[in-house]
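Q: How would the structure tokens look for this protein?
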Amino acid sequence: MLDLITSSAWALESKYYNVAKASIMQRLAAGLPALSAEEVVPRRYPHVDAQGFPSMWVSESGELAGVDVKPQGHGLNMAEAMAGLLAANGRGGTATTSGSKVAVIPVQGTIQKRGGMCSLGTKDLIASLAAANRDPEISAIVLDIDSPGGQVDGTEEFAAAIKNSAKPVVAYGDGLVASAAYWIASQCAFIYINSATTGYVGSLGVLCMHVDQSQFLEKQGMKVTILRSSRAVDKARLNSVEALTEEVIASVQADLDGIAATFISTVESGRAGKLSAKEDLFTGKVYNGADAKKHGLVDAIGSLQDAVNKAAQLAKTPGMGNNASSFTSSLSTAWTSSSKA
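A: Here is the predicted structure in token form.
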């Protein structure tokens, strides 16, 4: 874990980073593993099943959002919709064409590619997103986010999966949507934060930590010598027992700036036309919900139910959502036309 923290680039809220670093260093100094056994295993959340896939929530107040939600989530699935459309031949009738459920996927804790530190990995989350897209009873998806951010590796892939989702995805920030978590949220069609004063958004930037333990080891009477094969002069230069050279610092800085450029361009693309030009939002500053809304980092302040309702509404609005399925839109249009015939 220490190797992971000191050798990876992180899009992470700095306060959390410092707390995690201090905790891990204390455990290592006491001769304990970096993480406890409980922390190594990802938590399971109430709306995730035994296999780690999202359980499906029905928007009980769907009618208020202009959505025809069937009792207990029973509705016409995509296959039945197509069969009905082909058989109707202009005889009218109404039905939902993309299901009546909204999938709620938890994105909580530190984001890592393979999971850990009590969190599901981005690989798991991508699988959950894909499962929701495949399920004909699911009309839309909500990401339930409470995260300080995390490992860069895997974040870009998850963000791209959200952008390319065939069903609209809405983000709900339940406390903190920082750094890599915002990278992910920015690709959603709509972003909620739970509170104007106690919800926080931001920390848009990238960092990497280096711990130089050489002087500490020297005081303990230890001298570490690293031997490299003749041509591998650049191997493992970012380590905790050698001081960083100017060349290594410059190389790492270039990597961080490159990752940050991708981060920024992704956010600006996902929030096109919404971000305020009055303030540089990419300094790493964290904003409360009210300021985040003022600067266009979020769209509204609301509850998880609000997010579910919004997702269901977007699923019923042709052309809305982050990447609405052309198949679903075409089917909906055709069904509407046949109903009027």
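Residues 187 and 270 are 5 Å apart (CA to CA).

The two ends are 64 Å apart (CA to CA).

Upvote if useful.
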